[in-house]
Amino acid sequence: MNDQAANDSVGSIRAGDLIGRPAYGRGGNRLGTIADLIVDGDIRTGLRVTGVVVARRPWGRLLGYEREQATGPWLLQALARVVMHRRVRTIRWDELDHAG
Amino acid sequence: MKRLLGVTLGILTAIGGFVDIGDIVANSEIGARFGTALFWVLPVGVIGICVYAEMCGRVAAHAGRPVFDLVRERLGPRVGLANLSGSYLVTLMTLAAEIGGVALAVQLLSGIDYVLWVPAVAVALWLGLWRLRFETLERLFGLTGLALVVLLVALIAGDTPWSQLAGQALDPVPTEGEDWNSYWYFAIALFASAMTPYEVFFFSSGGVEEHWTRKDLLLARANAFIGFPLGGLLAFGFMGTAAVFFYPNGISVSTLGQAVLPAGLVLGKIGLACAILGVFAATFGAAVETGLSSGYTVAQYFGWGWGKYVPPRRAARFHTVVLLSILASVALLLTMIDPIQLTEYTLILSAVVLPLTYLPILVVANDRDYLGDRVNGKLANFFGMVYLVVIVVAAVAAIPLMIVTGGGQ
Amino acid sequence: MAARRWSIVIVVVLAVWMGGYALLSRDPDAVAYRESCVQSAQSTLDGLGTARMATDDGLLSSYRTALDDDAQKLIAQARGQIAGQVPPDSRSAQRRDALLPLLDEAERAYADLMRSQADHDGAARQRATDRIRTLEDQLRDFVDGNR
Amino acid sequence: MRVFLGFDLLDRQILDSEGLPVGNVDDIELAVGEDGVLSVTALLVGAQVWGTRLGGRLGDTIAGMAARMQRRTPAGPIRIPIDQVRETGAAVTLAISRDLLVEPELETWLREHVIVRIPGASADPEADKS
The whole model's pTM is what? Predict the structure, then answer.
């Protein structure tokens, strides 16, 4: 796959690689697993990564409940919260240690 | 012209989709073994499919996304792939059972063994899907499938002990000689025959492909709320006649010939011919739907082009999947597995797959990003939740019951 | 963590349910033999009863041939199932001795019914159907008695 | 506008300017721009990308097969620069037609070797659609 890496712009990374990885705070403490990446701006001016959604466990995606907005019927919502333990937290991108 | 097509699509989806080999087998066998003690499952199943068809019709019309596209989106690639393999396997087995059902119906008309008809039916099905305009298939099988009403006529015309049937229906307990395990096994089979997943794939994909506007949605909703109960009534024809003719004699039904026999006994040759023709149309219509749905599930998961109106050249992968699914179904039938037995196992396996199909629909139907102000109201959510719990319980209990009852022996 | 705990609970419930069922049947061979006796009596009843119900001439001939093939297969299959198994204990032998004559009589009665229809002999058909009706009662009693 | 990459973009259906399906967002490419900020540069489509993201033995075998099937240059997945995207929503809609994009090998191979061989493949059954 090395030829494929050559024509990527320098330092490119895929969202699939980031999601599911453990997230560490500035102090090196483990915050949980990256469930999603938050992007701000718009297509013209560029979509900049401004934060991550951190879940307690590597739940990646759970029917969309990893987002803040209430979506499902209350029973599913409650079940999702139980399964995902406490609320999913949103952490700003610059608070993360990017060595990982 | 558009209105007639809309109504016809509704009728086909109801008759072709509702009454298929699964309903014919489940209703006949249950009528013979339990009389009408399991009648209550039919309205429960019909309401369930109406609730979820309405939801995914709304999602198709407002978000323009079909079921399997949502499944991958909401469950992620890995769980979505597991869901795809389960649903595709069940749809493939249903397709084989439908083709087997058509072959059995032709055997009753020709006297020649059904296995010889299987390849011929498969070729006819593939040609229909490949060359015929979808509306032509729709009208042909939707309206011919109405011939199944002859079983209800046989029930009404014959000297049917209605009070006895009603009494038993209101006393929903295992009949003499049956235990609770087999009672619930067949209840799940009947429930799964009413809520078969491919009906939802077909209904929602039709909505997306025809770009249902709000007006079309009203029409589709009316078709579902008229069409599915109509299909349920036709399916009851098999249960009622089996309860009158086979149950009192302690005879259990295991062949298609037995299922249509009452129509012949009450209405003679014409009644029998009508019933067989009706079975042929319902199973062929269902084979068209399951054939397309096998392509829909795979194509929508991977984001390929798909659709019954798209010429094969412009959706090569979709049409190849449909072709391979038909070939795989023929191969499965040529192993001489009895189509009726195959149908029973397919119903139980589809019960196991149901939660994976209906859960994403319920979630997306509540998401404002997709539907804006068209999200589920209190009523839709109440029924949606109640049925989801019922579906999960049925899914968990299906396989153990199948083992404990030895496949309902 | 919760999901793992839930799946353990479900597995335990299923194991108890299925395990309980297996423990109940004390002597598996005798139970299996009893079940196959009941099954063959039931399928003979199905084949014979359906053939008897379908005797009036108003039906399509092609339908009749298909129906007769099904009935023939059911009756022959049932007979073969019992003939092929050795009863594991005396109680099973009693069951077989009660069942075998019924199965033989069923094959004879079925053959007479088919012959009477081939010859369009109404009287012979009537005799055959009456014999079959009594046989159906006996088969039903056997099924109910040994279920 | 706030977008959740995983939820709002990943695995979403991509439609071209005429609403024809292009594929799914199998992955998203991010890069550190001159301003030193990580931002989205392109959507990636293809079985190879999907396989790697699926992970596990199955994912790797699919990615391997897709890589071997590829003959187009430059190798690698179909890359749709983010500025070709007109809007995101229930589906991701592009500003361009899919004819400008590279067609997945599987679609081309099957059309040429299987579908076209069968008569009636190009007949548009809906030609006289009422």
Answer: 0.89
